[in-house]
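Hi R.,

Here's the chain you asked about this morning:
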Amino acid sequence: MTHPLTTKTVYVEGDDDVGILQIWFPGIPFTKAGGKDEVAKRTKADTACYGLKDRDFADDAAVVASRAPDSRLTLLRRYCIENYLLEPDIIAGAVRAMPALAPDLVGWTDETFVRQQLTQWGAELALYAAANSIVADWQQIVKADFLLYFSRLPPWPRAQVIQELQRRLAALSRPEVVEDALDTRYSQIQQDIAAWDGLHRWIIGKVLLEQYLYPQVFKPTGLAQARLRDALIEAGKGRVPAELQELAARWSLPF
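And here is the predicted structure, written out as C-alpha cells:
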C-alpha cells in the first residue's frame, strides 16, 4: 500500500506506532516524537508535517475537530494503535498464516469466536477503563493552562498561585462522590462496549494484546510476543481499516 510522498514526515507517539504504520504505509515516513505532547509540539513547529496521536480518553468532539480540513494533528478514533491490530479477520488471518500453530488454535481462525472473546475481555476491563477515564478527566483539569501559566514572566505572586491551585482542585470530584462518579462512568462504558466501535473507543488495545491475547492464547504455544505482533501487522496489510487509509490519503497530498 504505497502512497506518493509529499510530506516530510508524520509524527507519532512511539516505536509501536512507527512499527505498524511504516509496514502498512511504506511510502509515508513516520517519526517517533516521544509522547503526545511532543507530537503536538513538533507538528505545530513544522508546517510541512502532520501528527497523529492516540485517542486515549478524548471525547468525540475532539476527534471530529482533529479531522477538520485545515488540521494537521489528528486523533485516532480508537484508543491506541494496537486496537487496529485487534480485528477478528486480522487475528484469524495471522493464525491461518502460521500452520504449525493452527491445530492448537482452531477456534482462533473463526472470526465470530474471535470477536466474542475480545468482547468478553473488554467487559472484564470496563471498570478499569472507567476508573482511568475519570483520572484522565482530573489530569486535564489540573493540567489546564499549565504551559501558558509556567511560561508567563514575571512569575505570579504567591497568593495568585494559591488561588489558581484552589480553583483547579475544587473542580475535582470530592472523595465522597467518587463512587457514584465511577458507577456512572462504568455504566456508560458497559453500554458503549456492547458495540464494536465502543469496545475500541474505551478499551486499551495494548492491554488486550499484551495481557490477554498473548499470554492466554499464544504464549502457551511457545510463540514470542514480538512474533505475534509481527504476524498481526503482516496479516493486517491487506485489511487496513478505512479510517487509516483515509488519513494516509490526506498525508500524501500537499497541505
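One quick note: Confidence is low (pLDDT under 50) at residues 1-6.

Cheers,
M.
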